[in-house]
């Protein structure tokens, strides 16, 4: 995978992770503070169960504490941590026995600090409703790309699949949304 040039934040995170690998609790606290909210936002896109979100965050960061020395720098620290969170989420959802069905998906996963017009909010709600109808892998791929800003290569690393699989999931998700969103927006009835 071609890695982009590291930013100052990437260098800081790599330094924190190296310190965590040597059991530096202060570095771990900083990393925890940096990632808790970011992970909570990501996980809220996969489930609305607060208990599961907190469990996955704690499991993820516990794994980071234990495995920080295994990080080899072949991806960004954020990609590595999001990959751990994604796999922990899948495991927790399976263990909970409910998968990620439509009722599980969160409506409250958007950044509340952003002021939106009524039209923008309606469009966001409409797309969120459409995303609920996608299979977990397709929805997560779109969430990682469009809402969290990850590249195809980063998504492939997070989801542990080839870039071609990420592209296929995005393609199929877009087709499903293109066919589904007019129906959800009431446009099909209006055109009849």
Features:
Rna Polymerase Sigma Factor, Chain: A
Element string (H = helix, E = strand): HHHHHHHHH
Number of domains: 1
Secondary-structure arrangement, i.e. CATH architecture: Orthogonal Bundle
Radius of gyration: 18 Å
- Give the class-level CATH name: Mainly Alpha
| Average residue-wise pLDDT | 82
**Structural class of the secondary elements?**
mainly alpha
Low-confidence stretches: 99-114
Q: Helix content range of the residues, please?
A: 55-70%
In short:
With about 190 residues, this protein is mainly alpha-helical. It contains nine helices and no strands.
Description of the molecule:
The chain is an all-alpha fold and 192 residues long. The chain has one domain: Orthogonal Bundle (Rna Polymerase Sigma Factor, Chain: A), CATH 1.10.1740. It has helices at 8-21, 25-44, 50-67, 77-96, 118-131, 136-147, 152-159, 163-184, 187-190. It is elongated. The N and C termini lie far apart (49 Å).
Secondary-structure blueprint of this entry?
Elements: H1 8-21, H2 25-44, H3 50-67, H4 77-96, H5 118-131, H6 136-147, H7 152-159, H8 163-184, H9 187-190
